[in-house]
Write a structure and sequence with these properties.
The protein is of the alpha/beta class and about 325 residues long. The chain has 2 domains: about 210 residues, NAD(P)-binding Rossmann-like Domain (Rossmann fold), CATH 3.40.50; about 80 residues, UDP-galactose 4-epimerase, domain 1. The protein contains 10 helices and 13 strands. Helix 6 runs parallel beside helix 8 and helix 6 packs across helix 10. The protein is globular and about 60 Å long. It binds the ligand C[C@H]1O[C@H](OP(=O)(O)OP(=O)(O)OC[C@H]2O[C@@H](n3cnc4c(=O)[nH]c(N)nc43)[C@H](O)[C@@H]2O)[C@@H](O)[C@@H](O)C1=O. The site of ligand F7E has 21 residues, from helix 6.
Length: about 325
């Protein structure tokens, strides 16, 4: 069995590759010439890397024609919400065109590949009182260009399934974190700031944005197991929430990180970290996914936070 992982050098892609190798699957991954390789350098003997620009239809057609994968985990994306306000067109083009090129190539070669697409809880956006935990049937009220790009990816998955019978599973993943999380994202950013203070690399002040937002965090290692099960047992064309079913304010998450460190820290708001519109609460109902696949989150949030701190402590 051969799996293609787009964005294999990224945070989720590297964990996906590790999971697939343990399953004995042949792993091929896409990289771009500017991809950072540090997340997958330990896997390079066991995986095959192909240079592919997903925005370029010729590049994608060559990849799909040569590889003809059984499984596709489509994880490549511009995934940082604030970047999407600075470069909305680039985010939408990258995320939407990349996926259309992939679908079109699969369709043209007449492949029966099973395709997981990485949709996002950001699609739900503004959630009204009484709508939590959020089900897949909730209205989508996206609040960022990134969220729009994910709504488009999500519905393209639905449409290519309906129009051409592509075997697409739409995973709507809530926030996820763990070792190797990019340092822009809140859990990793705060963990790295704490570790930099521990190491004496910066003064004991931690800079933060909106601490009132509530997020539902799942460990990335649970998420990639979910993506595998989604392709094994999910119904084509369907959308499934992947979430933990609990949420924390960002302030509570910071308090958990601080409880695993012994530094004394002053917390300061950095206005540049505030967003034009921030999603107030994301709390997912993952029962539909559980019923389809048997998946449950297994790694407790406290352990994820400890592992994230350990990750940053181990970095040079
Ligand atoms: C599901 C979804 O999950 C992620 O999107 P996100 O929720 O925007 O993730 P984040 O870690 O950037 O922010 C989480 C919350 O934390 C608040 N916050 C406070 N202070 C800081 C801060 O200093 N930095 C950041 N980044 N956020 C901060 C911020 O305002 C927001 O309310 C991506 O994986 C995305 O790809 C995705 O699909």
């Amino acid at each position: 069995m051969k799996a293609l992982v787009t964005g294999i050098s990224g945070f989720v892609g590297s964990h996906m590759a590790e999971f697939l190798l343990l399953k004995g699957v042949e792993v091929v991954g896409t990289i771009r010439n500017r991809s950072r390789m540090d997340h997958i350098s330990h896997l390079q003997q066991d995986i095959r890397l192909v240079e592919c620009e997903l925005r370029d239809p010729f590049s994608v057609e060559a990849l799909i024609g040569a590889e003809k994968p059984d499984l596709i985990f489509h994880l490549a994306a511009q995934s940082f919400v604030p970047t999407s306000w600075n470069s909305p067109i680039d985010t939408i083009h990258n995320n939407v065109a990349g996926q259309v090129n992939l679908f079109e190539a699969i369709r043209r070669f007449g492949l029966h590949s099973k395709i997981q697409i990485a949709c996002s809880s950001e699609e739900y956006g503004q959630v009204n009182p009484g709508e939590t935990p959020i089900k897949e049937t909730n209205p989508l009220r996206p609040l960022s260009p990134y969220a729009i790009s994910k709504v488009a990816q999500d519905y393209l998955g639905y449409q290519y399934h309906k129009s051409y019978g592509l075997h697409v599973i739409r995973t709507i993943t809530f926030n996820h974190t763990g070792p190797r999380r990019g340092e822009n994202f809140v859990t990793s950013n705060f963990a790295k700031q704490i570790v930099d203070i521990e190491k004496g690399k910066k003064p004991p002040v931690i800079y933060v944005g909106n601490l009132e937002a509530k997020r539902d965090f799942t460990d990335v290692r649970d998420v990639v197991r979910g993506y595998w099960l989604a392709l094994e047992k999910g119904v084509p064309g369907e959308a499934y929430n992947i979430a933990s079913g609990t949420c924390y304010t960002i302030a509570e998450m910071l308090a958990i990180l601080l409880s695993h460190s012994n530094v004394d820290i002053e917390v300061k708001t950095d206005a540049s970290r505030l967003r034009p519109s921030d999603v107030e609460i994301l709390l997912g109902d993952y029962r539909k996914f559980h019923e389809a696949t048997g998946w449950n989150p297994e790694i407790p949030f406290e352990r994820t936070m400890e592992d994230l701190l350990q990750y940053w402590r181990s970095q040079p």
